Amino acid sequence: MSNLELKVLDQDEAAVACCSPMVREPLGEEAAVDLAKMFKALSDPVRLRLLSLIASHEGGEACVCDLTGPFDVSQPTISHHLKVLREAGLVGSERRGTWVYYWVLPAALAKLSALLQAPAAAGGSR
Amino acid sequence: MSNLELKVLDQDEAAVACCSPMVREPLGEEAAVDLAKMFKALSDPVRLRLLSLIASHEGGEACVCDLTGPFDVSQPTISHHLKVLREAGLVGSERRGTWVYYWVLPAALAKLSALLQAPAAAGGSR
DNA sequence: CGCCTGTATCGACAGTTGTCGAAACAAGAA
DNA sequence: TTCTTGTTTCGACAACTGTCGATACAGGCG
């Protein structure tokens, strides 16, 4: 299959295209429920730091063993937060031998970022 | 004072500049706590729809009486959600005569949007 | 095989959240 | 003033969340 890379690009562009800034038109009820789940996954300091740790890690991915150190919470709690991020569609994960690796799914972040874009800031109005 | 407009621009640009994408470097502990509060305010479907209703309303602001109709929840509940959005710094409000008006603070949305920007989607890596 | 290390799940518990009805407050009208 | 309408606050309650220790699972190594 040579369309693997294209598929990734399509995914990203679709994510951006599907969600115009929420300041343009009212959000639908279903869309709001869906997006709220993603934002809820981002609504905890530990999860935010986990996400940025994973994303900024060398190679774009990190194993759980790299992620438990920087936090004051227990290892089961880290595992729980990673599960929340995964079920929200913000990260992917895979077991490779002894370790489990996590990486960020850029399309999901791009989707939320586009949604929050505020044209008023660029236009200079108000 | 003729620097009123400049002040607004400064505010917006500072918000964008202060928060480079979280995928670039790990988030600090304090910054994560701060940002998590904003995302928590966005983590409810009713609040997301309220925010988009306010932002997309004519003139960029809406009175509470415009906001209670589209929802199935009681009016005190709407008032509660508006309070959450206000305390998170996402909207401003003002009483004008009988009615109370709410508007979106673009700098706050821009800050979160910039934080979530995912360079991997543009670079095409992974 | 048994042991060790890395990770996930379980069960429990305190704290928080979304929701409601009732009541209070704000401001204009009669 | 009293009445009416728009909005917020209060008190209560069920549901959810973050955290922990204990335990279970997965896989490599002796």
Give the largest chain-chain interface (CB within 8 Å). Answer: A-B, 52 and 53 residues
Inertia-based shape of chain A: elongated
Q: Between the first and last Cα atoms of chain A, what is the distance in angstroms?
A: 51 Å
How many whole angstroms does the radius of gyration of chain A measure?
17 Å
Order of helices and strands of chain A: HHHEHHEEHH
CATH class of chain A: Mainly Alpha
Helix content of chain A: 55-70%
User: At CATH's second level, what is the architecture of chain A?
Assistant: Orthogonal Bundle
Give the uncertain stretches of chain A in residue-range form: 1-17, 121-126
Number of strands of chain A: 3
Determine the oligomeric state from the structure: homodimer
Let me know the CATH homologous superfamily of chain A.
Answer: Winged helix-like DNA-binding domain superfamily/Winged helix DNA-binding domain
Strand residues, percent of chain A: 5-15%
How does this model look, in words?
2 copies of one chain form a homodimer. Chain A has about 130 residues and is mainly alpha-helical. Chain A has a single domain, classed as Winged helix-like DNA-binding domain superfamily/Winged helix DNA-binding domain (Arc Repressor Mutant, subunit A). In chain A, about 60% of the residues lie in helices and about 10% in strands. Chain A has 7 helices and 3 strands; from the N terminus they run αααβααββαα. In chain A, strands 1-3-2 form a 3-stranded antiparallel beta sheet. In chain A, helix 3 packs across helix 5. The first copy, chain A, is elongated. Chain A starts with a helix and ends with a helix. The N terminus and C terminus of chain A are likely disordered. The interface between A and B is large, with 52 and 53 residues. The first copy, chain A, binds a DNA duplex (30 and 30 nucleotides) through helix 5.
